[in-house]
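Internal ticket - ligand job 836, iron/sulfur cluster:
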Amino acid sequence: MSQKTPAIKPSIDNAPIDKAPVDKAPVDKDLIDKRPSEKRIKLSVGDLVDFSARRGDLFSESGYAGPTSLEGIRGHQKVQKARNDSWQKEVSVKQAINQHGYIVTMTGRIDLLSADDQLIVIEEIKTTYRHPSQIAPSQQSLHLAQAKVYAYLYWRQLPTEQQKQHHAIEVIVNYFNVLDNISNPQSQRIQIDDLTDYFQQLLGRYIQWYSKVERHRQQVIQSSKALLFPFSDYRVGQHNFARQVYRAIREKQTLMVEAPTGTGKTMSTLFPAVKALGESLVKQIVYLTAKGSAQQNALVAAQTLVEQNLKLDYVVIQAKDKSCPCRSEEQIVRNSCVSSDGRCSRTIDFYDRLPDARIACLKTRHLDVDTLQAIADQFHLCPFELSLQMVRWFTLVICDVNYVFDPMVQLATFEQDRSQRVLLLDELHNLSDRGRDMFSAQLSSGETQQIAKALDGFPLVKKAANSLARMIKKLSEESILEEPPASVFNQVEKCLTAINQQESGAEGLNSGLANDVFGKQPEGYAQWVKALYRYYMIHQLFSESHRGFVLKHQFGRVQSTSINLRCLDCATLIGRQINLMRSMIGFSATISPVAFFSTLLGLDENARSLKLPPVFPVENQLTIHCDYIDTRWQARVGSVEPLIGLIEQVMLSRPGKYLIFFPSYEYMNSVCEPFIQNHSNFKVISQNAASTDQQRQAFLNAFFAEDDPIIGFAILGGVFGEGVDFKGDALHGTIIVGTGMPSPSAEQKALQNYYQQQGFNGFQYAFQFPGLTRVLQTAGRVIRSEQDRGVVILVDPRFSRNDYRGLFPAHWEMKRHSNINEISSSLTSFWSAAKE
Ligand code: SF4
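stdout (structure tokens):
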């Protein structure tokens, strides 16, 4: 059953537009320079049109319903090359316009221009798979709007005498079909007066909004000048931390801060960043997190500052899947979301309802997840897309790192005005791993084959997918490639073309293959299409810091081959983004050695680092090095019994809540199972490779919500070893089995070779340092507050080697023990001292 989209009156056409005429005279340079910065706007034609002229439905514009970017470029070139010399190509326009007290500098580039004394023709090329009759009217009018603005700006920049010769301009939108190479020009002759009126309306609409945003921004600036640190005292190291952050922003530097738990990292970075706003050093603060749960810290800090009368506006971007109101947890689609053609009704006429929703967002100022959801409900919009629409206009944006760095999802707005933006990057130690994933791509023959099987109604895609599966399967035995296979890339391109054609065919978006269509896509189809796009993009970014891995594996009941374009080193790609921003402040409890992280992230030579002292009494943590249990692969069988004895001893010394971390499930189970058999008196819980969100929550509840002593078996580097705040009695200690080093897979060995060739110690970069980061992060779960006392036991003889000893936190007083009796005695005295 479908329900009609609620009729909410679009406001954009009804909104009163101040009809102040555009100043037709050229604006002199002095006036531009003297106008205060908040009264100067730089605006591209695309941005103006996108904001003021867009109507109708929300379309997924990249790829799903149109040519690939490469096809688009080639199409433009074909049309341009076919013209004779009377046509000018890629003509820049730039005009400063004085309107409503603002100086707006408009820029853009005209695809094709023909101009003489009699006639001016402006042509905008749009590549497509469709005939114009199949293109939505709202999209056509957007394309026409762009051409009209170019026409007006071109005419405006002519000398007055030439302006007088022309009373109209011919405006063409040329739909070039890349499948049959046929141009379909849609042409109109438009009077200059009409172009002027039209431009004035669009710009008026933009300025009307911009001035509201600017008023808010001025309130933020004024209130931030008066803002005081929100707590009566700074914690240990916090004042220095905040000072260094401010300095880094002022000096346009990158700063990496290693700050132990309890320093108050979020406020130490947000507060000085807000003060920098007050000094107009930056216009936007982007708080980046690697995990959704960390967004809450940033939100709480922002709310704390708001309580201090800071007029801060903020928006939180929650992942699309999590914020979608149309699917319940069981993936049941709500009726109110389905339009008559199966599309999500919240995308239909999205841009008609957006202007009112934007105003509501601006009035609210504080767009946390619930508020955004409520406004999205009120205007029947997709909350995720609404949040993205607001990013450009809000002062504080709290979001995942991928919106800045991932080439598939990065937001165009973060590419603009980078020098006015500061990034506050939480959990910095995770960024290089996340970055490698963002610049990698994988396809498998098994999955492709399975999708092809389910695509009976879509012959073009089915055929292309089958060929792709065969092509991947044909790749030689397991191997490492210096170059990605061109054959796979070409076939991926054919698949994407087939997908887009199918979606643009006679049935248009109703084909069931478009984004956010309910119930018509085969299971896993959307993920597969995304994987194709990612592969297509990463192939083109493939560089000497990538390798291709061909792997054979089982997919269900079939033998499958996968091709993995793996990024080994994302330093250049990540570093480029960081270094272009005014400043980046990255922080974590574990960024040692600093040179290692700086190299991994491609930071420039101006980057600084800061190490802060421990906040909590160091004697509250007992750190033991258990050096008599060898955890290396070949010694694991022999390690099971001593490990069981160690866990038992820890529990007997002080019954409580303990987490035991292992490098793999296999190793974990080899200890966990016999432990349970012989210790029915202890409550035990273990992590599961395929656990659901609810099961993970149940695991945590055993530590947070219950009082009983418990032993949790978990995976080192997994979900329980990072980002969980085991405060108070939630955790009494942890045993970390092994050095945390990644397993020596082909990829990890390639990483080692790569760094070795780059002149670094390949073993340290690929194995030792990443392992140590996991160990230190995990150890950091134990002491989370001033009152916490707890035990950290590191199990592996290698920890006493010189190359490890210098890497542990300087304040750790690690006791090295060579048998269970020594450990027992240390534990007993530690817990007895706690009672005194
Ligand atoms: S567009 Fe997609 S994510 Fe947004 S509300 Fe509709 S189904 Fe959910």
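Auto-summary: Confidence is low (pLDDT under 50) at residues 1-20, 506-512. Residues 550 and 563 are 5 Å apart (CA to CA).
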